[in-house]
Amino acid sequence: MSKNNGTEAAVFAAGGAAGGAGLAAIVGNMGLAGGFGGIAIGAAPVIAAGAVVGLAAYGIKKAFN
User: Fold this and answer.
1) What average pLDDT is seen over the chain?
2) How far apart are CA 38 and CA 16, in angstroms?
């Protein structure tokens, strides 16, 4: 992996994290409820999921290049 690829991957991850932060700010506190009971989901997991989505987008971009 060249330095340029690492930088580009970091940009995609940061963009995804920013998108996750924006989603968390819009939606607010979330939760899951089911047969197991209920669990709260804060902003951190949503931001982390956004970073993963950003890296997935980077991988898809690299697959087509």
Assistant:
1) 89
2) 27
| Model pLDDT, residue 59 | 94
Residue by residue, what is the 3-state secondary structure of the chain?
CCHHHHHHHHHHHHHHHHHHHHHHHHHCCEEEEECCEEEEECHHHHHHHHHHHHHHHHHHHHHCC
- Contact (Cβ atoms closer than 8 angstroms) between residue 46 and residue 1: no
CA distance 53 to 58: 9
Sign of CA dihedral 38, 39, 43, 48: negative
User: What is the domain count for the chain?
Assistant: 1
